[in-house]
Amino acid sequence: MPSIPRRRLVRCLAASAMLAAAAAWGRASDFPARPVTLLVPFSAGGATDGIVRHLADLAGRALGQPVIVDNKPGAGGVLGANQLVHSAPDGYTLSILPETVFRLPHLQKMQFDPLRDFSYVIHLSGYALCIATRRDAPWTDWAAVVADAKARPGQISYGTTGMNSTMHLTVEKMAQLSGIELNHVPYKGESEIIAALMGGHIDLGITAGSIVPLVDDGKARVLVSRHRSDVVGCAQPSERSARRIAQPIPSVLASDATPRYASMASADRQMIGDATPVLWTARRVPRWPDVPTLRDIGLDMVATSPFGIAGPRNLPPAVVKTLHDAFRKALDAPVTQALLERLNQESAYLDSAAYAAFARERFEAARRQVARMSPSPGQTRHQ
């Protein structure tokens, strides 16, 4: 078989590479030519799901193609990230990335590396979380929960979105600092937590904006209250390690928090019904000025749980820009700002480059937290 001259072979390979690059550019310039899938790693019906569906609808209008939300609940919120690793870098599969994406790789083997495997598109907001109780619960503040938990170790239950989630780690740190033992019950999303709370299956629910209507209707209460407010404890949390696998808790959460990226959790200042919250933010929020922060009740903690949108690594820059611009337009829309306000959240916009830098910061902060883990006095039970 005759051999191909070296120079001719090099020219052929170069031409092939140019054709491939041109084809890729053509595909990027035509993007999107079909619907885009946005993975949400939590169950339908929760605050995050509601916000993301709203943004997806507006972004789809800007893109000229629908953005279809696909819920992937479970596994602490990393199933969307897992799927991105196996998706083509064409912009048609995206995922919401919660805080656990940056923490879990320091605790266990994962399918992804958050520093290498994602193309960061846009940072959006942060989860507005709180500790809520039913209206008929015997506790009106965190001090009452602590006193009861010391009398009945491990018998007060609380629900979160899963092991090692921001919800879980923050409550575990609160329990550690308070010298109590609570019973952790993991769920796949906020809607399941609220259903379990209102159905009497758990005592405390760590929730986000979806609890606000129940609070406003007098069906829920936030845990720490002042004056005439029945509010007990909405807030933004930080992280910790899973007790089920006998991992200890980070000794400090506040030092690595980044308050400027946190969304502020709280609800209207009024008599609140069946659920109660404490703010996990750096300062009190305008809508609940009488609700104390964790620091106000003697727990030196500030916890945040930001989230944004990413795609598989090596997304063409033109595709990243198209997606970024569509979701930026959706985020800045007055109707979106009004929705965030109703859910006690705020915009925490970062562009693609700033989001990638922020992801590196969060990954490193999580590494330091895991390295600082120290044994706690008690051990939280799990169901």
UniProtKB/TrEMBL annotation:
<dbReference type="InterPro" id="IPR042100">
    <property type="entry name" value="Bug_dom1"/>
</dbReference>
<feature type="signal peptide">
    <location>
        <begin position="1"/>
        <end position="23"/>
    </location>
</feature>
<dbReference type="Pfam" id="PF03401">
    <property type="entry name" value="TctC"/>
</dbReference>
<dbReference type="InterPro" id="IPR005064">
    <property type="entry name" value="BUG"/>
</dbReference>
<keyword id="KW-0732">Signal</keyword>
<comment type="similarity">
    <text>Belongs to the UPF0065 (bug) family.</text>
</comment>
<protein>
    <submittedName>
        <fullName>Uncharacterized protein UPF0065</fullName>
    </submittedName>
</protein>
